[in-house]
């Protein structure tokens, strides 16, 4: 078989690669505008996931909670799920069965899962792990611009911008090929990084702003204050293209540099330098402001993203050539995963589920009565917290997600899963969540099935089948289709990805994320297609948004103002340090996949607690000593890693490991009131020396 062009199974950069199926499934980087022939360590090791030794190969089932999982036939496993769904639905109503999806699922899977929940199960309760990833950025972009596309311009625009600002993002470690687009020392461009840690990205910056965790909102208003005070705001742009500036100006007036320095710890001089660079970039190829999870995963995440959008609007960036505001999507299909209906409040086409017109359109495509479509369900955090409670879901079907490791306050999630009457997990590996399941279904993966993904630029990509799945493994679409049939829906749930994509295009027509004009032949040829791509429009869709107008009803972008407020949990005498968490180069998300890759396991075998040497001295521990990170919710264990690159009041833990090494045993699930995003990125902890 000849080499197959495809894309990486991991993050939202979706780097292009060749797969050589006849060569032990070898990976070779492929030139593409985003990765420009590069891959990170995870991409190079991606084929290791296809090894039968690391993945599930047969359905598993247990008859009682205290019995071990044992191999069973597909019929036995699917029959059991269908029987449990019917039993629980009959006893407790349709909302007692819930679905939890994932941001790594293809567009087709996300679409069919949303339809399966609303039509075959009749439940309102479907949400997905992307709620824990992009929801604050999505909520703010939707409100400010009328549309949420992570980058509203191709990534190559970042590569030509004179100034790039990154807030709470570390692409040098999380998406190394993306870092190739960033300004580099000596290339005449400027990089401004805001991060409590001196990450590899921050160390390459022209100026590094190192705010205390949870203070990015005040930082943004400090920058806006200076932009206005120095006469650097673009008042012609503000007048012509925005609304709400006066309120943002009023709030920004209260964030003079000395006050911002007191709140954030960032010196006023560094704020001044950052503002000069942001303003100067406009005449040097452009200025781009980008946020990541570090700014967004907070109980005030939506307001924080709005604050940086306000800054970008005041500088006149969005829609201007070479300039803009964006958010760096994390999960492989973090963009497409939030467009096609697996979100509690949405229908396909990124439509609101409570919009009567949207319900009418989608009901027509699905061939159901719109009155039978459920309304909004519980968002992810509330959904997980309600499992097994009186009136809450009694059964949960999980597809491609591992909340036992990846959800905040993970100990509580584990207890809620144990309280369920029934749990089924579909995954390619026997994840920590699968260990709690009554039925586990083995799913095919990226190189074994066709499917489309939408990368962080809103570009739709084709991931192709290069090898056959192992015997005994089925695709998620085949699984959903088989379950729907068992629940009485003989039609409407095809297992063929091309058929599902054709229906997805019809369902999305006229929506915010309109895919109706996305031609499969263009995707197969590797030609660019960016949504919105309405039928009858340009075949390449819309690479750049906002050139003439924003997608709000009046065509203007919105300033949305909010005051800084403390994190949901502040440090005190008992819990004197901030904990912040994040990703590292050789691991990905809950680690369920990457911890099974020999190459990546060797590169990053265990977690660590990054802390300042002076903090370690107070604790009486040396580099490598085992420590406990204790919060009001739980305790995580890992060796200490000493570095002066972190603030004295802050410790960092990567979140890719399981068991007692789970950073999310400690994190706070306090939600953002707008997006439902939990406060992953800051909570109060104390450190203790652990047993050796
Ligand atoms: Fe894969 Fe992301 Fe690494 Fe690219 S940067 S190779 S998409 S994990």
TrEMBL record:
E.C. code: 1.7.99.4
Domain of life where this protein originates: Bacteria
GO cellular component, one term: membrane
Class of this enzyme: oxidoreductase
Pfam family, one: Molybdopterin
Region (Disordered): 330-354
MF GO annotations: 4 iron, 4 sulfur cluster binding; metal ion binding; molybdopterin cofactor binding; NADH dehydrogenase activity
Record GO biological process: respiratory electron transport chain
Keywords tagged on the record: 4Fe-4S, Iron, Iron-sulfur, Metal-binding, Oxidoreductase
Annotated ranges, domain 4Fe-4S Mo/W bis-MGD-type: 1-52
Entries under PANTHER family matching the protein: NADH-QUINONE OXIDOREDUCTASE SUBUNIT G, RESPIRATORY NITRATE REDUCTASE
Name of the protein described by the UniProt record: Assimilatory nitrate reductase catalytic subunit
Originating species: Thermomonospora cellulosilytica
């Amino acid at each position: 078989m000849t080499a197959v062009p495809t894309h990486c199974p991991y993050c939202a950069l979706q780097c292009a690669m060749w797969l050589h199926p006849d060569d032990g499934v070898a990976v070779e980087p492929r030139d593409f505008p985003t990765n420009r022939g590069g891959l990170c360590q995870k991409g190079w090791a991606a084929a290791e996931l296809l090894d039968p030794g690391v993945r599930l190969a047969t359905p598993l089932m247990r008859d009682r909670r205290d019995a071990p999982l044992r191999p069973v036939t597909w019929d036995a496993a699917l029959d059991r799920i269908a029987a449990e769904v019917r039993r629980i639905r009959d006893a407790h109503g349709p909302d007692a069965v819930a679905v939890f999806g994932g941001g790594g699922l293809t567009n087709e899977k996300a679409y069919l899962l949303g339809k399966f929940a609303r039509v075959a199960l009749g439940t309102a309760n479907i949400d997905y792990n992307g709620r824990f990833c992009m929801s604050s950025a999505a909520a703010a972009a939707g409100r400010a611009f009328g549309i949420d596309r992570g980058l509203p311009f191709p990534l190559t625009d970042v590569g030509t911008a004179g100034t790039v600002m990154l807030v709470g993002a570390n692409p040098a470690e999380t998406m190394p090929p993306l870092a190739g687009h960033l300004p580099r020392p000596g290339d005449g461009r400027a990089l401004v990084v805001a991060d409590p840690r001196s990450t590899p990205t921050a160390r390459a910056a022209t100026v590094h702003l190192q705010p205390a965790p949870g203070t990015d909102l005040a930082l943004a208003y400090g920058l806006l204050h200076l932009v206005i005070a120095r006469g650097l705001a673009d008042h012609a742009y503000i007048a012509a293209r925005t609304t709400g500036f006066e309120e943002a100006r009023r709030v920004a007036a209260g964030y003079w540099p000395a006050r911002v320095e007191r709140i954030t710890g960032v010196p006023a001089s560094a704020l001044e330098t950052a503002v000069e660079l942001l303003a100067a970039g406009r005449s040097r190829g452009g200025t781009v402001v980008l946020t990541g999870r570090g700014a967004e995963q907070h109980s005030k995440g939506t307001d924080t993203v709005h604050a940086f959008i306000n800054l970008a609007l005041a500088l006149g960036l969005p829609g201007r050539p070479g300039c803009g505001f964006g958010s760096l999507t994390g999960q492989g299909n973090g963009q497409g995963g939030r467009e096609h209906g697996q979100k509690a409040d949405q229908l396909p086409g990124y439509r609101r589920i409570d919009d009567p017109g949207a319900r009418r359109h989608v009901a027509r495509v699905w061939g159901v009565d719109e009155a039978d479509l459920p309304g909004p369900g519980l968002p992810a955090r509330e959904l997980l917290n309600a499992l097994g409670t009186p009136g809450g879901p009694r059964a949960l079907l999980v597809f491609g997600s591992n909340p036992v490791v990846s959800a905040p306050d993970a100990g509580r999630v584990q207890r809620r899963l144990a309280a369920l009457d029934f749990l089924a997990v579909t995954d390619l590996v026997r994840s920590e969540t699968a260990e709690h399941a009554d039925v586990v279904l083995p799913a095919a993966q990226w190189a074994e099935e066709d499917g489309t993904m939408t990368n962080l630029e809103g570009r739709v990509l084709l991931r192709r089948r290069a090898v056959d799945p192992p015997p005994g493994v089925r695709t998620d679409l085949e699984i959903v289709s088989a379950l729907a049939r068992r629940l009485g829906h003989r039609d409407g749930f095809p297992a063929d990805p091309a058929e599902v994509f054709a229906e997805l295009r019809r369902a999305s027509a006229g929506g915010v994320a309109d895919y109706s004009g996305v031609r499969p032949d263009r995707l197969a040829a590797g030609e660019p297609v960016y949504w919105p791509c309405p039928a009858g429009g340009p075949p390449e869709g819309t690479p750049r948004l906002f050139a003439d107008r924003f997608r709000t009803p009046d065509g203007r972008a919105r300033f949305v103002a909010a005051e800084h407020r403390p994190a949901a949990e502040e440090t005190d005498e008992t819990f004197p340090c901030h904990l912040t968490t994040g990703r590292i180069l050789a691991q990905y998300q809950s680690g369920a996949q990457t911890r099974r890759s020999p190459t990546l396991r060797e590169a990053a075998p265990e977690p660590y607690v990054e802390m300042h040497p002076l903090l370690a001295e107070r604790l009486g521990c040396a580099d490598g000593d085992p420590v406990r990170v204790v919060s009001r919710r739980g305790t995580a264990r890992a060796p200490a890693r000493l570095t002066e690159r972190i603030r004295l009041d802050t410790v960092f833990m990567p979140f890719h490991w399981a068991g007692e090494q789970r950073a999310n045993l400690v994190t706070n699930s306090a939600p953002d009131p707008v997006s439902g995003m939990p406060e992953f990125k800051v909570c109060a902890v104390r450190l203790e020396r652990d047993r050796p």
